[in-house]
Amino acid sequence: MSIKRTLRERKFIKSYIENSGNATEAYMAISPKISEESAAVLGFRMLRKVNISSDELMDMMGMTDAYLQEKLDEGLNATKTISVIPIPPKQCEPSTGDLPKATSKNVEYVDVDDFAVRHKYLDTALKLKGTYPSEKKDIDLNVKGSLDVNSELDKKLAQLDVKDLKKLIKPNIKTNETKQ
Which domains does the chain have, with CATH numbers? Predict the structure, then answer.
């Protein structure tokens, strides 16, 4: 579903993208005779008027879901190049300190996995998918406030029978009724 926009609005959006999201410069590009102060106000108004979503902007900039998936895959397979100085094996007597010496003449470059970058990409992917595990759970039990439940309490509650759970809940309900 495409929103109908005027030619001026379409030019503003194109200029907005070309000017890295600067509404003032975008407005000055479509109306060059206007002052910078006026362009700042009118650019803000135009941006509000066109009401363009970030998803629509990203699509116009070529950042489609397929493109983002490709970049995510690249990030999850990130590597870095490091320099190493290989030491050839040499027969030596134990505990004599007779070890081969490394020199800068025999430097080699090797690609290794970049786990720090991979972690950042994975973190971002999980957040985007909404599957990032939360550290805190809030449970509303129709009481005033909420309870902070940790995993230890979850495990203990899971081990209880239904009868035991009812016993735990009934005294609390009675105490809440008597307080009201």
Answer: 7-60 (1.10.10), 66-129 (no CATH), 137-179 (no CATH)
